[in-house]
Design brief:
The chain is of the alpha/beta class. The chain has a single domain, classed as P-loop containing nucleotide triphosphate hydrolases (Rossmann fold). About 35% of the residues lie in helices and about 30% in strands. It is built from eight helices and ten strands. Helix 4 runs parallel beside helix 6. The longest helix has 16 residues. The radius of gyration is 17 Å and the shape is globular.
Length: about 230
């Protein structure tokens, strides 16, 4: 498969929700191409559809129309069990709040080794992420002993063990100070270079200005696609 086929693709994706008896469109005819080895930033104001798009990409929700493909598999054709296997083996997810991504009682190294166990890959693949993501000297620390930026880099490492085909990040720098943002963006770049399609929903210029592709949403529609 090509880098495009190995990543994530959306074609004509629409999703609406019923609110107080009214149909409210969240996404309308959205096309997106996020090839392997690249960072795609999904940007737009609150309510533009960023979170809905990420949820559809995880397979936790289904579009009303259109197709979503992850690593060559059309998500809409998969059973519930197959979608769960796809999430476990081919998708990584990083949430906005650093603490929401980690278990308080596991060290950094234990987090990565747990990810290796879940994905059924050698532990060596997990340990190999410590150095390039700048967390090797924190390997035996618990989350409470880490800064917010360090926690988020551990979360990225946890999501990237395998590696997955696609890593989804929901506002990965949203709760960090400026001093930690660059390190987190650098970590996303390291993961992309490993052949992962990184897709980040973000308000942060520090993220989208360094992305390979930018998808701008407004009121659920693609306002601009660049890269």
């Amino acid at each position: 498969m090509t880098s495009t086929e190995l990543g994530a693709n959306c074609v004509g994706v629409s999703r609406s929700y019923r609110v107080d008896g009214h149909v409210v469109p969240a996404l309308v005819d959205v096309d997106m191409c996020a090839p392997a080895g690249t960072i795609t930033a999904v940007v737009g104001p609150s309510g533009s559809g960023k979170s809905t798009l990420l949820r559809l990409l995880t397979g936790m929700d289904s579009p009303d129309h259109g197709t979503i493909t992850i690593a060559g598999q059309e998500v809409g054709t998969l059973s519930t069990a197959s979608r769960a296997r796809l999430r476990r083996s081919r998708l990584g997810l990083v949430r906005q709040a650093p603490g929401d991504n980690l278990l308080a009682y596991l060290t950094v190294r234990q987090h990565l080794r747990l990810a290796a166990q879940i994905r059924g890959v050698p532990v060596a693949l997990a340990d190999a992420l410590l150095e390039p993501l700048g967390i090797a000297d924190r390997a035996d620390r618990l989350p409470r002993q880490l800064s917010g930026g360090e926690q988020q880099r551990v979360a990225i490492a946890f999501a990237a063990v395998g590696p997955p085909a696609v890593l989804l990040a929901d506002e990965p720098t949203g709760q960090l100070d400026h001093g930690n943002v660059d390190a987190v963006v650098d970590a996303l770049r390291v993961i992309a270079r490993a052949g992962v399609a990184v897709i980040a929903a973000t308000h942060d210029p520090a993220v989208w200005q360094r992305a390979d592709r930018v998808l701008r949403l407004r009121a659920g529609r693609v306002e601009e696609a660049a890269g």
